[in-house]
Design brief:
heterodimer, A: about 110 residues, mainly alpha, 2 domains, 5 helices, about 90% helix, B: about 525 residues
């Protein structure tokens, strides 16, 4: 790769993740319709993000975080929802509070570490 | 450990798209749920949580007086499975905006994509890119897993899907500990403990194999290194973490196990010389043969080659794979010693996560037998991978795709008319209603019995009311309502059976008042 090409590739990062995300979205839309796409977004927000946040604090590698985030998020959110629900009596609010708490704690701890 | 590159992202995207497409074939045109009794109960539990915005330790009240209730003598409200898996399903239903589609998506991801990605990850980290890709494709077309998914044994698939991740985390921890005791990466051990607890709470059998593997591997490391492969402090914290997550739900799991106690006595010792031997003629038989579930026998030589590769290399990760194989073998033969009787065949559902990486490793190890330059070796890898994929798509894919396309079509699953009736019952009948479902299994010829059994299970779950179809198990007076579903028989043109059903309902319940009549489905309140 020439220096010019290298410079260009830095300024314009590889479009692969963008293309793949777009293909995924179209695929889900085609396969399951809007609710499929919405369901997938819910999975990312509800499970992948909290899982990733926790693993980020534990300083695992990027690929490890990518693969472990989803199952760990499934555990964290369902566990938090279960116990909080015993206190506040609403499953959906328990889930929202669980996710917000994990994300907030993650961001705060990361900021403090810096 | 190797860093992931752009080609990994592309490979994972392809695996995700192909896997999701194949596994979603049964719900692409019709999103209504399907499966046998287990499927209905598991789906119904999540549906109840989402519909009533409530989770708790107990089963939904309409589970009482069913087989699930009978597993806990004296406490029918005790659940057979802890609630976490169902909460995840309920939440995606709640926030996904639809009763069926988002949950279908998560069910497919938990039953297949999770396992595909876990196997890809483990194989990629330890054995490189090509074995990971090939193992991933084999996972997509794992016939035993797919048929289990169709039938509704979905929790066990998710439980086994976590095993590669659990083993990876433990391996990473022990490697870092053995390298430098002072700077061991304890985080891996904590993540492992959390995932192990989660696996056990989804289904105990996946966690059982993981614990057995970890025990054997730890003993090996102890023997090899002449010292413990972990620090007591980190292990104590991880056990504490496991206990905090797992123990609150343990009483339900253990009381269920007591309902199926095992007794220690040696039996069928000859089966120890086979990978697995079912104690009785199994059904369906193909699920218990190597060729039936792994696309014929073309993969068998490569499986053996993969095991040979482990023995030749004997690095710690190779030995961990070997002890995983040994643990699975031991689990499959527990019935020989009187444990897990009648249930240990379900450990076979953990075969794919182990066999497919080994087959891919064995296949790609063919490269090492050919002495050529580096550039030519890259071409050889591509060539071998393409050959492997051709074989997968020729032998492994067709039975899975055929099963997917033909699964639960038409009246073989809950129909829109039955869903409408279930929703009407949900809105109009008292929550404590006990509904007698006709046609009962006794009202129909043998060939319809299995089909009608799962029909009323689904009606029960989708209407959130207790259903049953047996007057021999319950008193006539226990039933408050009657549903007569002529719709399936009508669709099949079985007028004689419709007439017989009408006569039987009049004979069985003379005092009844009509509440609902639509699409050949009638609901009555019983006098």
């Amino acid at each position: 790769m020439s220096l010019v090409e290298e410079d260009l590739s830095r300024r314009f990062p590889t479009p692969v993740p963008v293309i793949i995300s777009a293909v995924m979205a179209v695929f889900l839309l085609w396969l399951f319709g809007w609710y499929g796409l919405l369901g997938f977004v819910v999975l990312l927000l509800l499970y992948v993000m909290p899982g990733y946040t926790l693993l980020d604090l534990l300083k695992l590698s990027r690929s490890e975080k990518a693969f472990l985030a989803f199952p760990l998020g499934l555990l964290l959110v369902s566990l938090g929802t279960f116990w909080l629900n015993l206190v506040i009596g609403s499953m959906r609010w328990s889930a929202v509070i669980t996710v917000v708490m994990i994300m907030t704690a993650g961001i705060l701890l990361k900021t403090v570490r810096r | 450990m190797q860093g992931m590159k752009t080609r990994d992202v592309i490979a994972l995207a392809v695996l995700f798209v192909v896997g999701l497409y194949v596994w979603s074939l049964p719900v692409q045109d019709n999103p209504l749920p399907f499966g046998e009794g287990d499927a209905a109960h598991q789906y119904g539990k999540a549906d109840f949580m989402a519909s009533f915005d409530h989770v708790g330790f107990d089963n939904p009240p309409f589970f009482y007086r069913t087989w699930y209730g009978s597993l806990h003598p004296g406490d029918e409200s005790a659940p057979i499975y802890p609630p976490l898996y169902f909460i995840d399903l309920a939440l995606v239903q709640e926030f996904g905006g639809d009763r069926f589609i988002p949950k279908n998506l998560l069910l497919i991801i938990l039953s297949s994509t999770l396992g595909i990605f876990a196997v890809y990850f483990l194989t990629r980290q330890w054995y490189g890119f090509w074995p990971a890709v090939l193992a991933g494709f084999l996972m997509i077309f794992s016939r035993r897993d797919f048929v289990s998914f169709l039938f509704g044994q979905r929790t066990i698939l998710a439980s086994f899907a976590l095993v590669p991740l659990i083993l990876y985390c433990y391996y990473q921890y022990t490697e870092s500990f053995l390298k430098d005791h002072q700077h061991a990466k304890d985080a891996y051990l904590y993540v492992m403990a959390a995932l192990l607890a989660f696996s056990g709470l989804i289904h105990t059998q996946g966690a059982f194999v993981a614990v057995l593997t970890l025990g054997l591997y730890s003993a090996y490391l102890l023997w090899k290194e002449k010292s413990l492969p972990f620090s007591w402090k980190a292990m104590a914290i991880s056990i504490l973490l496991f206990s905090i997550i797992f123990l609150p739900f343990a009483p339900d799991l253990f009381s269920q196990t007591q309902a199926h106690p095992g007794t220690f006595h040696l039996q069928r010792l000859s089966s120890l010389f086979r990978w697995y031997e079912h104690p009785t003629p199994p059904s369906p038989a193909f699920m218990y043969t190597y060729g039936g579930v792994h696309g014929g026998y073309w993969t068998l030589p490569f499986l053996l080659l993969g095991i040979l590769y482990l023995f030749l290399k004997r690095r710690n990760n190779d030995m961990l794979m070997f002890f995983w194989l040994l643990a699975l073998y031991l689990a499959l033969h527990l019935d020989v010693f009187g444990f897990f009787g009648g249930r240990n065949d379900r450990f076979l559902k953990g075969e794919a996560e182990l066999f497919y990486p080994l087959i891919a490793i064995g296949f790609m190890s063919l490269r090492s037998y050919i002495k050529i330059g580096k550039r030519m070796k890259a071409y050889l890898s591509w060539g071998l991978a393409l050959l492997f994929l051709v074989l997968v798509f020729s032998f492994n894919a067709p039975p899975v795709v055929d099963a997917a396309k033909g699964a639960y079509q038409g009246i073989m699953r809950i129909t829109p008319a039955q869903l409408e009736a279930a929703e009407w019952i949900d809105a109009n009948l008292p929550t404590e209603a006990m509904v007698y479902y006709m046609p009962s299994r006794d009202d129909l010829p043998d060939q319809y019995r299995g089909w009608i059994y799962q029909k009323w299970r689904w009606m029960q779950m989708l209407s959130h009311r207790a259903f049953h179809d047996s007057l021999s198990e319950y008193n006539r007076s226990e039933f408050t309502h009657l549903i007569i579903d002529f719709s399936d028989l009508g669709a099949m043109g079985q007028q004689e059976l419709v007439n017989a059903l009408r006569a039987a309902s009049d004979e069985r319940f003379s005092n009844k008042t009509l509440l609902y009549r639509k699409n050949l489905i009638e609901v009555y309140v019983l006098g």
